[in-house]
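Everyone, carefully examine this protein record:
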Amino acid sequence: MTQEFILETRGLTKEFRGFTAVDDVNLKVREGHIHALIGPNGAGKTTVFNLLTKFLPPTRGEILYRGKPITRMKANEIARLGLVRSFQISAVFGHMTALENVRVALQRKLGTSFHFWKSERSLDHLNDRAMELLDEVGLAAYADVLTVEMPYGRKRALEVATTLALEPTMMLLDEPTQGMGAEDVDRIVELIRRVSRGRTVLMVEHNLSVVSRLCDRITVLARGAVLAEGSYQEVSRDPRVREAYMGSDAAEEEASA
């Protein structure tokens, strides 16, 4: 029987020397949904991501994946379960081609990521799958291009391809459109929509236009705690959310306009 919620947190809390960065967060991500985690700067979004992907240990609380506790598991162990994170800063090798980057990710999935001593020919069997993944993210024409020479938006698409190489059931995308112009944003939105089919996506995103176009459900954080949750229409009308983003005076002016 399929779990209704693929990822769940219960009372998730992270304290740093008396400062509470994440405060009793109860998050439920429904399987097959695109779920956004939004909030003003300093709201605790990236800290939540770091807790979910085990780059930080929680002070208190529990994390469940497919109904099973993963709170004490290591980052590589949850990645093997299918919970894979794509980083805010593009995490690809600049002096390798797009094809080589995806091939390295495929090697990692096979458990051979550090076998750089192997001959080039011994890795050729990965090329077909690497090309399939590049084609899936619209980068087939960039296969032999050094990553350092690729436009920023294409690098982020390549990062998605390397994430897909790990065969994720659930993808955690950290600011996928940060620093992009409108054309690249549109391209990445369509890419996320395409690769989300058959998968679950949890994303941190500042661009509310992107969130409104993509997401089934939204959780709003403020000062480390859940402020509101619902559809984009529901949370965008919430006066507490407006105040958190714009300040009380601006929110009152907009409400009265």
User: Anything to note?
Assistant: The longest strand covers residues 5-16. The chain has two domains: 1-82+171-257, 93-167. The domain at 1-82+171-257 is CATH 3.40.50.300 (Rossmann fold). The longest helix spans residues 182-195.
